[in-house]
Amino acid sequence: MFFKRFQEDIDAFLARDPAARSRLEVILCYPGFHALLFYNASHGVWRRGWRLLGRCISHMGKILTGIEIHPAAQIGRRFVIDHGTGVVVGETSIIGDDVTLYQAVTLGGIAPSVDSGSQVDQKRHPTIEDGAIIGSGAQVLGPVTIGKGARIGANAVVTRDLPAGVTAVGIPARVVMPRDKDKAKKFVAYGTPTDGVPDPVARMIDSLRSQVTTLMERVDELEGRLPEGGAPDHEETIESESDGIEKIPSAAASGRKP
């Protein structure tokens, strides 16, 4: 059983990283694979109640690989950490099968540091379901659920649940979908499609530009209705969307100073 899973993990690196040319190269040169070995050892002793020893093994793995995985985290099969430097997997994280993480990803909690005793054994970290891809620098924070096959783009910040099969980018992360829906089901390196994905920020800016243009046209239309020389001497006319045309006495007519 152990050797079968050992081979599965190696083959997963070969399948998802074209730079890996042999199993021996993965075993000798891939810190993400080394981190899994340290995790398996620390998780095993943690489950047996040897908590301090589990943390010590985990800490040694962090020093040697640059990847921090808490021994209490639950990780499925064929888990790949590509490049890996700076990856953090928190204590109550749950990771399904065939998940891919890239460098500097954080699966963290957002619980305050005060009164930490009340947070022991509470779910504080994300659940990543099967087949999800999380791009470099992404932060997934809190007890959220990332659905099956979801993609999180590089440097995104996720604080809410994501449905299965969607792509989320930006800060805070917003769901976008490629125009080619077939590509959404394929493996995407770094979780970030490089073509056919509308930028949600650009779309918002375009929407604001359109609204500003509409308002400017409306102002020009209203200014065109004024007589030459400005407003009438005795009354000003304004247009109300709800009441039609209202007549308001001007300052001169009411005897008040402008």
Main attributes of the structure:
258 residues; 2 domains; 17 strands; 33% helix
Short recap of the structure:
The protein is of the alpha/beta class and 258 residues long.
If you had to describe this structure to a student in words, what would you say it looks like?
There is one protein chain. The protein folds into two domains: 2-197, Hexapeptide repeat proteins (UDP N-Acetylglucosamine Acyltransferase, domain 1); 203-254, no CATH class. It is built from six helices and 17 strands. It has helices spanning 2-16, 23-29, 31-47, 51-65, 200-225, 251-254; strands at 68-69, 74-75, 80-81, 88-89, 94-95, 100-101, 106-108, 127-128, 133-134, 139-141, 145-146, 151-152, 157-158, 167-169, 174-176, 235-240, 244-249. Helix 3 runs antiparallel to helix 4. It is elongated. The protein starts with a helix and ends with a helix. Mean pLDDT is 81; it is low at 250-254.
